[in-house]
């Protein structure tokens, strides 16, 4: 029988576990749930720290931390408004603005080298060292103004040079720079801007009109110097509102000519100073208002402070014999005299406790009223004015505009002096008749003479074209000018014809040098003693003047010239008469005013 082979499973012997030495990793390992629990605890602890900090920032003391953040990162910069231009009557700029820059600093970066940077800025930009040093060290600030309105090339060069020398933390931003392209032309009126704002003239008086309102931009920046803004940070902006232009009645080219002519006259006569005004007879617009000496608006610091304005408006003086035409115009208006009224004029005239004399010695003279004006007789004027009733002369002079400001809009204008009714005496009136014991400014006198030129109607003088409101709230300009009848048209015409004899009478006329070839001209000389402000007495110096208009029978311009203390001893006819002639001739030609072609006045001056 076959034998079957039986398979048997052979069991291998079981392996023994190998014993290995324990490591640190195997020692830390534990059950999974223990490791998760530990992890959760750690996360909870971290979140608790952040949560507590958030509560502290937003709930407990948010304002202090916001302020700290602002001081660290928020930049608030000025966006300068464009200042309005000051223009002449033809739109030519007398003051405008160009690209300028402000220089700024980040004290966080400049603090370390503050003394060296302050010295650098004092040298390059002319800033005050101590003030700059304080700003450069300002704790908690990232933004300080070092200097404003710096020419762009100068500011850029200074900041670039600072960087090359290793000074960090300076940068620039736009800041329009004020320009005066004509230098001293009309600087006495326009004024100028200083580092802290307008300091004189129209720039100061109409600052609110011109300035506009600055805007500002506030934003988070990684660095004020780089200007890099944080994408999700603060970003607030208020746009600037630009200022308004101010258009003047001044004719720039005429102003330049008048200034040059006045300068020549003052220098040739070795005088102290002078002023001249040109007015449009029909509108009252001031076409030129000149002072000499004056200043350059581009560099006002180079001139004394007393010259950085208009003495023609701020300084007053006795007008002298130009005043006589106002006295006579009132008499003619009252019908108390005529141009042919005959007067026997003695060599002296008693008034109160003093004698009145003429500027020349003479015995008894037979003059008509026209002769009194032509020869400029003090005594003859007083004798004619004795016909006034009490208070009448003062009423006329007030109506002519004496004793009150003309209202041009410049707060520096003086009102002059016209005695009050209570202090008015007969002796006072006798001297006021011929221009003493009264004070005026040059524009007042021009407006008074212009009243005669304009047929007896006074027009408020204007310096602003249209209308504008100054800082004091006064609305001024050609649109606001008032017209007031002062004397009749007949009285004005008769006065103008008598004034013509001052120039064209070969015997008694005292100012032939004031003639303008081809034109009929009316005018009046003036020579007045000057009052010393310290002693309140006459000090021997004089103011000489000439005022008039042309053409006599159809006046277009009124011109007034006054020169203080001529050293050559000349009077109104010889010193200021020729200046009047030059200015009037230029104005007539410039505006194409033709001669009227009528014969000049031949009123008798003697009898």
TrEMBL record:
Which residue range or ranges hold the Penicillin-binding protein transpeptidase domain?
A: 274-584
Regions of biased composition (Basic residues) lie at 1-18
User: Is Membrane one of the keywords?
Assistant: yes
A family per Pfam: PBP_dimer
Q: What is its main location?
A: membrane
Q: Which GO terms describe its molecular function?
A: penicillin binding; transferase activity
Instruction: List the keywords (alphabetical).
Output: Membrane, Transmembrane, Transmembrane helix
Domain of life assignment: Bacteria
Where are the residues of the annotated region Disordered?
A: 1-27, 218-238
Residues annotated as transmembrane = 34-55
- Annotated localization: Membrane
- The keyword Transmembrane helix appears for this protein: yes
All residue ranges annotated as the Penicillin-binding protein dimerisation domain in the record: 79-195
Q: Which GO terms describe its biological process?
A: cell wall organization
Q: Which GO terms describe its cellular component?
A: plasma membrane
Record-linked PANTHER family = PEPTIDOGLYCAN D,D-TRANSPEPTIDASE, PEPTIDOGLYCAN D,D-TRANSPEPTIDASE FTSI
UniProt record similarity statement: Belongs to the transpeptidase family.
What this protein is called in its record is Peptidoglycan glycosyltransferase
Classification of source organism:
Bacteria, Bacillati, Actinomycetota, Actinomycetes, Propionibacteriales
